[in-house]
Design brief:
CATH class: Alpha Beta
Strand content: 15-25%
Largest sheet: 7 strands, mixed
CATH superfamily: Vaccinia Virus protein VP39
Number of helices: 7
CATH architecture: 3-Layer(aba) Sandwich
Bound molecules: S-adenosylmethionine
Shape: globular
Number of domains: 1
Length: about 220
Amino acid sequence: MSGAPARQGPATLPDAEVRARSVLKYRKRAAGYDATCGPTWPIRERTVAALRLQPGQRVLDVGCGTGLSLALLRDAVGESGLVFGFDQSPEMYASACARVTAAGWSNVLLYETPAQALRLPESVDALFFHYTHDILRSASAVSAVLACARPGAAVAVASIKYFPWWLAPLNPWVYLKNRGYNGAPGELRAPWDRIAPRLLDWHLTPVQFGMGYIGVGRVA
Ligand SMILES: C[S@@+](CC[C@H](N)C(=O)[O-])C[C@H]1O[C@@H](n2cnc3c(N)ncnc32)[C@H](O)[C@@H]1O
Protein backbone atom coordinates (compact mmCIF):
# COMPACT_ATOMS: atom_id res chain seq x y z
CA MET A 1 0.00 0.00 0.00
CA SER A 2 1.21 3.51 -0.62
CA GLY A 3 0.15 6.98 0.39
CA ALA A 4 0.45 6.53 4.16
CA PRO A 5 2.65 8.91 6.11
CA ALA A 6 6.23 7.68 6.53
CA ARG A 7 5.96 7.32 10.29
CA GLN A 8 2.75 6.76 12.18
CA GLY A 9 3.46 6.62 15.89
CA PRO A 10 5.51 4.15 17.91
CA ALA A 11 6.47 1.23 15.73
CA THR A 12 8.50 -1.14 17.86
CA LEU A 13 7.80 -0.52 21.52
CA PRO A 14 8.71 -3.35 23.90
CA ASP A 15 5.89 -5.87 24.38
CA ALA A 16 5.54 -5.02 28.08
CA GLU A 17 4.93 -1.36 27.33
CA VAL A 18 2.45 -2.08 24.55
CA ARG A 19 0.59 -4.48 26.82
CA ALA A 20 0.48 -1.99 29.70
CA ARG A 21 -0.92 0.72 27.41
CA SER A 22 -3.54 -1.67 26.06
CA VAL A 23 -4.66 -2.77 29.52
CA LEU A 24 -5.18 0.87 30.50
CA LYS A 25 -7.16 1.61 27.34
CA TYR A 26 -9.48 -1.34 27.84
CA ARG A 27 -9.98 -0.47 31.51
CA LYS A 28 -11.76 2.61 30.19
CA ARG A 29 -13.30 1.05 27.09
CA ALA A 30 -14.66 -2.27 28.39
CA ALA A 31 -18.04 -1.02 29.63
CA GLY A 32 -18.94 0.65 26.34
CA TYR A 33 -17.07 -1.70 24.00
CA ASP A 34 -19.97 -3.81 22.70
CA ALA A 35 -21.94 -0.74 21.62
CA THR A 36 -19.08 0.23 19.25
CA CYS A 37 -19.02 -3.09 17.37
CA GLY A 38 -22.13 -2.83 15.18
CA PRO A 39 -20.36 -1.57 12.03
CA THR A 40 -17.88 -4.46 12.04
CA TRP A 41 -20.43 -7.20 12.82
CA PRO A 42 -20.64 -8.43 9.19
CA ILE A 43 -16.84 -8.72 9.17
CA ARG A 44 -16.99 -10.78 12.36
CA GLU A 45 -19.50 -13.14 10.75
CA ARG A 46 -17.47 -13.41 7.55
CA THR A 47 -14.30 -14.14 9.48
CA VAL A 48 -15.96 -16.89 11.50
CA ALA A 49 -17.37 -18.36 8.28
CA ALA A 50 -13.91 -18.26 6.67
CA LEU A 51 -12.71 -20.81 9.24
CA ARG A 52 -15.18 -23.38 7.87
CA LEU A 53 -15.55 -24.89 11.34
CA GLN A 54 -17.02 -28.36 11.71
CA PRO A 55 -19.02 -29.79 14.62
CA GLY A 56 -16.67 -31.24 17.23
CA GLN A 57 -13.70 -28.99 16.39
CA ARG A 58 -11.71 -26.87 18.84
CA VAL A 59 -11.31 -23.18 18.07
CA LEU A 60 -9.38 -20.41 19.84
CA ASP A 61 -10.79 -16.85 20.02
CA VAL A 62 -7.55 -14.84 20.20
CA GLY A 63 -7.91 -11.68 22.33
CA CYS A 64 -11.59 -12.50 22.79
CA GLY A 65 -12.42 -9.19 24.46
CA THR A 66 -15.94 -9.18 25.89
CA GLY A 67 -16.69 -12.44 24.10
CA LEU A 68 -18.81 -11.05 21.28
CA SER A 69 -17.70 -13.84 18.92
CA LEU A 70 -18.17 -16.72 21.33
CA ALA A 71 -21.77 -17.51 20.35
CA LEU A 72 -20.89 -17.57 16.64
CA LEU A 73 -17.90 -19.82 17.24
CA ARG A 74 -19.82 -22.09 19.58
CA ASP A 75 -22.68 -22.43 17.09
CA ALA A 76 -20.14 -23.47 14.46
CA VAL A 77 -18.44 -26.20 16.53
CA GLY A 78 -21.62 -27.32 18.27
CA GLU A 79 -22.13 -28.94 21.66
CA SER A 80 -19.43 -31.51 20.93
CA GLY A 81 -16.82 -28.88 20.08
CA LEU A 82 -14.71 -26.65 22.30
CA VAL A 83 -14.21 -22.91 22.23
CA PHE A 84 -11.17 -21.46 23.98
CA GLY A 85 -10.75 -17.74 24.47
CA PHE A 86 -8.30 -15.48 26.24
CA ASP A 87 -7.70 -11.83 26.93
CA GLN A 88 -5.21 -9.89 29.05
CA SER A 89 -7.61 -7.09 30.03
CA PRO A 90 -9.24 -7.95 33.37
CA GLU A 91 -12.31 -5.89 32.48
CA MET A 92 -12.80 -7.39 28.99
CA TYR A 93 -12.15 -10.89 30.36
CA ALA A 94 -14.69 -10.38 33.17
CA SER A 95 -17.29 -9.34 30.62
CA ALA A 96 -16.59 -12.45 28.51
CA CYS A 97 -16.85 -14.67 31.59
CA ALA A 98 -20.19 -13.09 32.52
CA ARG A 99 -21.46 -13.82 29.01
CA VAL A 100 -20.43 -17.49 29.27
CA THR A 101 -21.99 -17.87 32.71
CA ALA A 102 -25.23 -16.20 31.64
CA ALA A 103 -25.51 -18.49 28.61
CA GLY A 104 -24.56 -21.60 30.62
CA TRP A 105 -21.98 -22.73 28.05
CA SER A 106 -19.92 -25.59 29.47
CA ASN A 107 -17.75 -26.00 26.37
CA VAL A 108 -16.36 -22.44 26.34
CA LEU A 109 -13.16 -22.08 28.36
CA LEU A 110 -11.66 -18.66 28.99
CA TYR A 111 -8.25 -17.59 30.26
CA GLU A 112 -7.05 -14.24 31.56
CA THR A 113 -3.58 -14.08 30.10
CA PRO A 114 -1.41 -12.14 27.69
CA ALA A 115 -1.06 -13.85 24.34
CA GLN A 116 2.70 -13.98 24.92
CA ALA A 117 2.19 -16.39 27.85
CA LEU A 118 -0.66 -18.44 26.40
CA ARG A 119 -0.73 -22.20 26.98
CA LEU A 120 -3.75 -24.39 26.21
CA PRO A 121 -4.47 -27.89 27.51
CA GLU A 122 -4.88 -29.20 23.94
CA SER A 123 -4.13 -28.11 20.37
CA VAL A 124 -6.86 -26.36 18.46
CA ASP A 125 -8.13 -26.90 14.91
CA ALA A 126 -8.68 -23.21 14.20
CA LEU A 127 -7.45 -19.76 15.25
CA PHE A 128 -9.74 -16.73 15.10
CA PHE A 129 -8.22 -13.24 15.27
CA HIS A 130 -10.78 -10.45 15.19
CA TYR A 131 -9.38 -6.93 15.60
CA THR A 132 -6.36 -8.02 17.59
CA HIS A 133 -3.80 -5.65 16.07
CA ASP A 134 -1.46 -5.53 19.09
CA ILE A 135 -1.24 -9.32 19.17
CA LEU A 136 -0.50 -9.49 15.44
CA ARG A 137 2.29 -6.91 15.83
CA SER A 138 4.08 -8.91 18.57
CA ALA A 139 6.34 -11.67 17.24
CA SER A 140 6.30 -13.49 20.58
CA ALA A 141 2.51 -13.28 20.82
CA VAL A 142 2.10 -14.64 17.30
CA SER A 143 4.49 -17.51 18.08
CA ALA A 144 2.71 -18.39 21.33
CA VAL A 145 -0.71 -18.43 19.64
CA LEU A 146 0.46 -20.47 16.64
CA ALA A 147 2.02 -22.99 19.05
CA CYS A 148 -1.49 -23.70 20.38
CA ALA A 149 -2.72 -24.96 16.99
CA ARG A 150 -2.17 -28.25 15.22
CA PRO A 151 -0.41 -28.30 11.84
CA GLY A 152 -2.94 -27.50 9.14
CA ALA A 153 -5.23 -25.62 11.54
CA ALA A 154 -7.39 -22.97 9.88
CA VAL A 155 -6.52 -19.34 10.60
CA ALA A 156 -8.73 -16.31 9.96
CA VAL A 157 -7.61 -12.78 10.75
CA ALA A 158 -9.64 -9.57 10.45
CA SER A 159 -8.58 -6.10 11.46
CA ILE A 160 -7.84 -2.54 10.45
CA LYS A 161 -5.28 -1.35 7.90
CA TYR A 162 -4.52 1.80 5.93
CA PHE A 163 -6.67 2.67 2.94
CA PRO A 164 -5.15 2.17 -0.51
CA TRP A 165 -3.52 5.14 -2.23
CA TRP A 166 -6.72 6.60 -3.70
CA LEU A 167 -8.14 7.10 -0.18
CA ALA A 168 -4.78 7.84 1.48
CA PRO A 169 -5.81 11.31 2.71
CA LEU A 170 -8.05 9.45 5.16
CA ASN A 171 -5.17 7.48 6.67
CA PRO A 172 -4.38 9.91 9.52
CA TRP A 173 -7.98 9.29 10.63
CA VAL A 174 -7.39 5.52 10.39
CA TYR A 175 -4.30 5.94 12.55
CA LEU A 176 -6.21 7.91 15.18
CA LYS A 177 -9.04 5.37 15.15
CA ASN A 178 -6.56 2.56 15.69
CA ARG A 179 -4.79 4.47 18.47
CA GLY A 180 -7.97 4.49 20.52
CA TYR A 181 -7.91 0.71 20.75
CA ASN A 182 -4.28 -0.34 20.64
CA GLY A 183 -1.12 -0.04 22.70
CA ALA A 184 0.96 -0.02 19.51
CA PRO A 185 -0.92 2.03 16.95
CA GLY A 186 0.60 2.37 13.52
CA GLU A 187 2.21 -0.39 11.45
CA LEU A 188 -0.99 -0.39 9.42
CA ARG A 189 0.39 -0.89 5.92
CA ALA A 190 0.62 -4.68 6.20
CA PRO A 191 -0.34 -5.52 9.78
CA TRP A 192 -0.50 -9.21 8.88
CA ASP A 193 3.19 -9.39 7.95
CA ARG A 194 4.28 -11.17 11.14
CA ILE A 195 1.74 -13.98 10.83
CA ALA A 196 1.26 -14.42 7.07
CA PRO A 197 4.80 -15.78 6.40
CA ARG A 198 4.17 -18.47 9.03
CA LEU A 199 1.03 -19.71 7.26
CA LEU A 200 0.23 -21.77 4.17
CA ASP A 201 -2.20 -20.66 1.46
CA TRP A 202 -2.46 -17.10 2.81
CA HIS A 203 -5.15 -15.12 1.02
CA LEU A 204 -6.17 -11.54 1.76
CA THR A 205 -9.48 -9.81 1.03
CA PRO A 206 -9.86 -6.05 1.60
CA VAL A 207 -13.07 -4.96 3.35
CA GLN A 208 -14.59 -1.58 4.30
CA PHE A 209 -13.29 0.10 1.11
CA GLY A 210 -9.79 -1.04 2.02
CA MET A 211 -9.73 0.15 5.65
CA GLY A 212 -10.04 -3.44 6.82
CA TYR A 213 -8.95 -6.88 5.72
CA ILE A 214 -9.80 -10.52 6.20
CA GLY A 215 -6.87 -12.89 5.80
CA VAL A 216 -7.12 -16.65 5.79
CA GLY A 217 -4.50 -19.37 5.82
CA ARG A 218 -3.42 -22.59 7.51
CA VAL A 219 -0.83 -23.25 10.18
CA ALA A 220 2.31 -24.65 8.54
C1 LIG B 1 -10.27 -4.45 19.65
S1 LIG B 1 -10.41 -5.61 20.96
C2 LIG B 1 -11.10 -7.00 20.09
C3 LIG B 1 -11.82 -7.94 21.01
C4 LIG B 1 -12.52 -9.08 20.29
N1 LIG B 1 -11.58 -9.87 19.53
C5 LIG B 1 -13.61 -8.57 19.39
O1 LIG B 1 -13.51 -8.75 18.18
O2 LIG B 1 -14.58 -7.99 19.88
C6 LIG B 1 -8.70 -6.14 21.22
C7 LIG B 1 -8.57 -7.08 22.41
O3 LIG B 1 -7.24 -7.60 22.42
C8 LIG B 1 -6.81 -7.67 23.76
N2 LIG B 1 -5.34 -7.70 23.78
C9 LIG B 1 -4.49 -6.76 23.29
N3 LIG B 1 -3.22 -7.16 23.45
C10 LIG B 1 -3.26 -8.38 24.05
C11 LIG B 1 -2.27 -9.31 24.46
N4 LIG B 1 -0.98 -9.09 24.27
N5 LIG B 1 -2.69 -10.47 25.03
C12 LIG B 1 -4.02 -10.71 25.22
N6 LIG B 1 -4.99 -9.88 24.86
C13 LIG B 1 -4.63 -8.73 24.27
C14 LIG B 1 -7.39 -6.43 24.40
O4 LIG B 1 -7.43 -6.53 25.80
C15 LIG B 1 -8.76 -6.38 23.75
O5 LIG B 1 -9.74 -7.05 24.51
